[in-house]
UniProtKB/TrEMBL annotation:
GO biological process: chorismate biosynthetic process; shikimate metabolic process
Domain spans labelled Shikimate dehydrogenase substrate binding N-terminal: 44-124
Source organism of the structure: Neurospora tetraspora
CDD domains, sorted: NAD_bind_Shikimate_DH (cd01065)
Pathway info: Aromatic compound metabolism; 3,4-dihydroxybenzoate biosynthesis; 3-dehydroquinate from D-quinate (NAD(+) route): step 1/1
Gene Ontology MF terms in the entry: quinate 3-dehydrogenase (NAD+) activity; shikimate 3-dehydrogenase (NADP+) activity
Top-level class of the enzyme under EC nomenclature: oxidoreductase
Lineage of the organism: Eukaryota, Fungi, Dikarya, Ascomycota, Pezizomycotina
E.C. number(s) listed in UniProt: 1.1.1.24
Pfam families found in the cross-reference section: Shikimate_dh_N
Protein's name according to its UniProt entry: Quinate dehydrogenase
Biased composition range(s): Low complexity: 1-16
InterPro entries membership: Aminoacid_DH-like_N_sf, NAD(P)-bd_dom_sf, Shikimate_DH-bd_N, Shikimate_DH_fam
Location of region: Disordered: 1-23
Length: 341
């Protein structure tokens, strides 16, 4: 029995009014996206989606492949609404973003290993049960691919730069978990240092990663003195907003980061923050210290390309990666210009 079937059955028996509640949630949505112009459609499902470049990225891919497809924004708190819309025969899949990346999982029939191990889903794709013909909702996590490919595609000598060296993850949210997974599984990290302003978030990351089998080499670095004693990292993934440090905890975290950046051996830093601009204060500090800085748009692009591989069945060689990079760079340049004016 599938996870989705189990969940639905349990919900129905425990609450007879649940179907009515779901219908009311659907009716409360002021408008659903217009799907009529497209042969197939998907959704960007989450909240506060106005600035997302995900629909733009996928539109470039579909245009290149001559597909009359579109990814449409579904800005809603309602998973029941999304699941009902996803029953449409022309639905092909969805990007799942905050706050639904974890909450969607009980409604899925199958999870990829990455999705299961990270405990978050950012991609829903479809399969068909060969025995019954039933549509299956499958969850993947392509955020980890975005982190991996950002390093693999941009660092010319990984054996010298980051393999078999410690790594550093800055932050304590969902992106930090994806970074830990990618560094552990694919990028050859030994120890993985965690630096964050919030001790409880670090504790949660370590506990969850340990429970899922890849937390044994995580080290919370909580002081400058501790950072000074440790070997320098080869790969850094920064998963925090581009705000200057203000609180005591934020200032301490920045000093620890600066200590790592200032070590003799350098490496490559992926700056995951790209909105409103990928050119951040932390990225500038790293460049000044001699680090290779990889812009966060690289992670955005590679996780999106991986999504389209699930949805279209095409390979990297068949997808317009360079065109996507050029359009995204142009869009960000416009946004940065508007922000500065």
């Amino acid at each position: 029995m599938s996870t989705a079937t189990t969940t639905t059955s349990t919900t129905t028996t425990t609450s007879a009014v649940q179907p009515q509640k779901q219908q009311q949630e659907i009716l409360h949505l002021t408008s659903t996206p217009d799907i009529t112009p497209y042969a197939k459609h998907g959704y960007l499902f989450g909240q506060k989606l106005a600035a997302s470049m995900s629909p733009l990225l996928h539109s470039i891919v579909y245009s290149h492949l001559s597909l009359n497809w579109a990814q449409l924004r579904l800005d809603s708190p309602s998973i029941p609404l999304f699941l009902q819309l996803a029953q449409h025969p022309d639905f092909y899949g969805a990007s799942v973003t905050m706050p639904h990346k974890v909450a969607i999982i009980p409604h899925l029939d199958h999870l990829t290993p990455e999705c299961r191990d990270v405990g978050a889903c950012n991609t829903l794709f479809l399969k068909t049960d060969p025995a019954t013909g039933r549509r299956l909702f499958c969850g993947a996590n392509t955020d980890v691919i975005g982190v991996r490919e950002s390093f693999v595609q941009n660092v010319s000598e990984p054996a010298k730069v980051y393999e078999s060296r410690p790594a550093l993850v800055i932050g304590g949210g969902g992106a930090a978990r994806s970074a830990v997974y990618a560094l552990h599984k694919w990028l050859g990290a030994t120890d993985i240092y965690l630096v964050n302003r919030d001790q409880s978030e670090v504790d949660a990351v370590i506990a969850e990663c340990t429970e899922r089998g890849y937390g044994d080499r995580l080290v919370h670095v909580a002081s400058v003195e501790q950072a000074e004693r440790l070997a320098g990292p080869g790969a850094i993934v920064a998963c925090i907003p581009d705000f200057p440090p203000k609180t005591e905890e934020e200032v301490l975290a920045r000093r620890i980061i600066e200590t790592f950046l200032g070590k003799e051996e350098k490496g490559a830093m992926l700056e995951m923050c790209y909105n409103p601009s990928p050119f951040t204060e932390l990225g500038a500090l790293a460049e000044k210290e001699g680090w290779q800085v990889i812009l966060g748009t690289e992670a955005l692009i590679w996780q999106g390309i991986e999504q389209d591989k699930y949805w279209t069945g095409r390979t990297n060689e068949e997808l317009p990666i360079q065109e996507v990079k050029e359009v995204i760079a142009s869009k960000l340049a416009e946004a940065s210009k508007s922000q500065a004016s």
